[in-house]
Design a protein that fits this description.
The chain has helices spanning about 20-25, 35-40, 90-100, 185-200, 240-250, 255-260; strands at about 10-15, 40-45, 80-85, 90, 110, 115, 130-135, 145-150, 155, 170, 175-180, 205, 215-220. It has about 260 residues and is an alpha+beta fold. It folds into two domains: about 5-25 and about 120-260, Enolase-like, domain 1; about 35-115, Herpes Virus-1. The strands form five sheets. A four-stranded antiparallel β-sheet has the order 1-7-8-11, covered by helices on one side. Strand 3 and strand 4 form a beta hairpin. Helix 4 runs parallel beside helix 5 (about 240-250). It is globular and about 60 Å long. Pfam families: DTC (PF18102), zf-C3HC4 (PF00097). Keywords: Cytoplasm, Metal-binding, Notch signaling pathway, Repeat, Transferase, Zinc, Zinc-finger. This is E3 ubiquitin-protein ligase. It catalyses: S-ubiquitinyl-[E2 ubiquitin-conjugating enzyme]-L-cysteine + [acceptor protein]-L-lysine = [E2 ubiquitin-conjugating enzyme]-L-cysteine + N(6)-ubiquitinyl-[acceptor protein]-L-lysine. It is found in: Cytoplasm.
Length: about 260
C-alpha cells in the first residue's frame, strides 16, 4: 500500500457556494410571473403550422390541452410561441405549465432539443465541495497525477424546490470521493464542475435508482468516477470515453467552456 505521507495533496481548495440558499436565489427572477419569464424567450406565432404541440399533443392551431391552474388569462392571439434560439413551437399555456412544474429559476429548457434559455439551476441541498491533487496516476492516464474531488452534503429538511417540502431528506454515502486525471481536459472539467456545483446541478433530492429510497440525495445527470485504482464496479478507470461524455452531460445542463470559463 502507498505511504500515507506520499498522498498529501499538493494543493487544496474548497468551495461552499451551496451552503445556505444564497446561490440559488441569485438566479431567481423576483417579481416576474411564470408567464413573463416564458415570454422573454418566445417570438409570437400568428399563424401556427399544422403540427401538434409536443407538450400537450394537441394541435398548435387549437387551444392548449393543459387544463391546470395558474395559466389563465392567455389570449388566443398569443397562444403559440416560437423559442427564439431553436425555433421549436409550443402553446404558451403549455410552456407556462412546464415552467411551473420546474425550479422556477428564470430558465427554460426546450422539451424537444433541450436547448437552455437563461441560466439553469437545480435543487442541490447545501453542502461542501473540496478538491486537491494526489501524486498518483489513474489507470489509462499514466502521464499525469490525479484530481480528487470530495463532496459532502449533510441530511436536512427539504425546501420549497424539493419533492416534499418540510420533510427530512437523507444523505447516504457522504463524503463522496471522485476522480479526474490532472490533465488539461481533466482540469477543464473540474472548472466546469465548480460552475455546476454553484448552480446546484451535481446532486438532487429524489428517489435512489440503486436502493429505491425516496427523499434522499442522488446524483443528477453528470456521471462521476468514484473508484480510484481499477474499474471493477464500472465507476472507475480506464474508460476512454468518460471525459468527453462528462463534457456532453455538462453541456446538457447549460455548462460549457465557451459560456462559463474566462478566456485567457
Amino acid at each position: 500500500s502507498a505511504n500515507r505521507s506520499s498522498e498529501e495533496p499538493e494543493w487544496i481548495k474548497s468551495c461552499t457556494p451551496c451552503s445556505g440558499r444564497s446561490s440559488y436565489f441569485v438566479f431567481r427572477h423576483v417579481g416576474k410571473t411564470p408567464e413573463e419569464v416564458v415570454k422573454r424567450y418566445l417570438q409570437k406565432v400568428r399563424n401556427p403550422p399544422e403540427e401538434d404541440c409536443t407538450i400537450c399533443m394537441e394541435a398548435l392551431a387549437g387551444p392548449s390541452g393543459y387544463k391546470g391552474p395558474g395559466v389563465g388569462g392567455i389570449s388566443r392571439a398569443e397562444s403559440v410561441g416560437r423559442l427564439a434560439q431553436c425555433g421549436h413551437q409550443y402553446h404558451l399555456q403549455c410552456l407556462v405549465a412546464m415552467y411551473n412544474n420546474g425550479n422556477k429559476d428564470g430558465s427554460l429548457q426546450c422539451p424537444t432539443c433541450k436547448t437552455i434559455y437563461g441560466v439553469k439551476t437545480g435543487n442541490q441541498p447545501p453542502g461542501k465541495m473540496e478538491y486537491h491533487v494526489i501524486p498518483h496516476s489513474l489507470p489509462g492516464h499514466p502521464d499525469c497525477k490525479t484530481i480528487r474531488i470530495i463532496y459532502n452534503i449533510p441530511p436536512g429538511i427539504q425546501g420549497p424546490e424539493h419533492p416534499n417540502p418540510g420533510k427530512p431528506f437523507t444523505a447516504r454515502g457522504f463524503p463522496r470521493h471522485c476522480y479526474l486525471p490532472d490533465s488539461e481536459k481533466g482540469r477543464k472539467i473540474l472548472r466546469l464542475l465548480l460552475v455546476a456545483w454553484d448552480r446546484r446541478l451535481i446532486f438532487s433530492v429524489g428517489t435512489s435508482s440503486t436502493t429505491g429510497e425516496s427523499d434522499t440525495v442522488i446524483w443528477n445527470e453528470v456521471h462521476h468516477k468514484t473508484e480510484f485504482g481499477s474499474n471493477l464496479t464500472g465507476h472507475g478507470y480506464p474508460d476512454p470515453g468518460h471525459l468527453d461524455n462528462v463534457l456532453e452531460e455538462l453541456k446538457a445542463q447549460g455548462i460549457t467552456e465557451e459560456e462559463c470559463l474566462p478566456r485567457d
